[in-house]
């Protein structure tokens, strides 16, 4: 049935284009035989059909010609892709791979919106959900990666931090805080809409695992706290205001993260706490 439908579609397009070519050739012949200014010009001129005028305008448009060419040339691919989109079901990794492949195919079209209007049943709502969910996952993955650099980057090692001077240390701690200032509001905003968003994605069989990524981002933020506390203890321990700022920053991330301060991060927090207590006496 599908093969018949596809063959019928191609035949209809070819027949239509053939007739229209003949019509245009006929019109050109009439103009040549009866040029403007001749004795018979304008005589017995048939009344133009508005639909014919519209078609002529569209046919003369290179853009519309390209769209019609795309419909014919990529018709089979689009129908196959529509079936794949409707059938898609998967989580983060499969989602990103599928959307990348989908976009590479749709990127071949000269005007995606106009070309797809020719295909009845095109799953546009699911396409939008796939794009939205993959964009969200990519954004979250980037956030997570940026935060993890505070543990992995060679500029954040104890050796690198030890080489900083006081002013570089102040700048280092400020950059750690700025990183969190960019991430935390965005994550908290996402959490407000997470339930509705995931329910909508699941209606299209998309499991973006956004909640897992958000949790990972929250815990990765602790890397900035560790780096900031190490830097503060190494270079700013004699400045109570900077010590207090690092202490507050670490507690902020303790509250923001899922697991909270533990192990090394908790030891650093206790050390700053002890230094602040000693400064009172």
Could you tell me the number of beta strands?
Answer: 0
The average pLDDT score comes to 86
- The portion of residues forming beta strands comes to under 5%
| Terminus-to-terminus distance | 88 Å
Q: In oligomeric terms, what are we looking at?
A: single chain
Instruction: Describe the largest sheet.
Output: none
Q: Indicate the low-confidence ranges by residue numbers.
A: 1-9
The shape is elongated
| Radius of gyration over all CA atoms, rounded | 32 Å
Q: Could you give the order of the helices and strands?
A: HHHHHHHHHHHHH
Number of helices: 13
Q: Helix share of residues?
A: over 70%
Summing up helix and strand content along with how strands pair, one would put the structural category as mainly alpha
Structure in words:
This protein has 281 residues and is an all-alpha fold. Helices cover 78% and strands 0% of the residues. It has 13 helices and no strands. It is elongated and about 105 Å long. The N terminus is likely disordered.
What structural keywords apply?
elongated; disordered N terminus; mainly alpha; 281 residues
Summed up, what is this model?
It contains 13 helices and no strands. Mean pLDDT is 86; it is low at 1-9. Helix 7 (124-152) runs parallel beside helix 11 (222-235).
Task: Set down the secondary structure blueprint.
Elements: H1 2-33, H2 50-60, H3 62-73, H4 75-87, H5 92-106, H6 112-116, H7 124-152, H8 158-162, H9 166-203, H10 210-220, H11 222-235, H12 240-256, H13 264-280
């Amino acid at each position: 049935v599908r093969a018949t439908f596809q063959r019928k579609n191609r035949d209809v397009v070819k027949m239509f284009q053939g007739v229209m070519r003949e019509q245009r050739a006929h019109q050109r012949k009439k103009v040549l035989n009866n040029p403007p200014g001749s004795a018979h010009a304008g005589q017995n001129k048939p009344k133009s059909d508005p639909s014919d005028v519209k078609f002529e305008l569209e046919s003369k448009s290179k853009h519309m010609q390209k769209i019609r060419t795309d419909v014919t040339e990529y018709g089979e691919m689009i129908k196959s892709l529509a079936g794949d989109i409707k059938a898609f079901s998967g989580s983060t990794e499969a989602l990103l791979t599928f959307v990348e492949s989908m976009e590479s195919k749709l990127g071949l079209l000269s005007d995606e919106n106009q070309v797809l209007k020719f295909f009845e049943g095109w799953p546009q709502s699911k396409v939008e959900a796939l794009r939205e969910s993959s964009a969200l996952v990519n954004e979250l993955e980037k956030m997570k990666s940026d935060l993890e650099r505070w543990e992995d980057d060679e500029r954040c090692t104890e050796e690198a931090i030890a080489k900083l001077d006081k002013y570089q240390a102040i700048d280092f701690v400020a950059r750690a805080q700025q990183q969190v200032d960019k991430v935390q509001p965005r994550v908290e905003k996402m959490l407000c809409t997470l339930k509705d968003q995931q329910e909508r994605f699941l209606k299209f069989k998309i499991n973006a695992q956004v909640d897992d990524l958000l949790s990972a981002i929250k815990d990765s933020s602790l890397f900035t706290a560790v780096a900031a506390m190490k830097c503060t203890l190494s270079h700013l321990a004699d400045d109570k205001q900077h010590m207090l700022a690092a202490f507050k920053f670490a507690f902020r991330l303790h509250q923001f993260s899922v697991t909270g301060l533990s192990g090394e991060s908790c030891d650093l927090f206790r050390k700053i706490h002890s230094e602040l207590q000693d400064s009172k006496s």
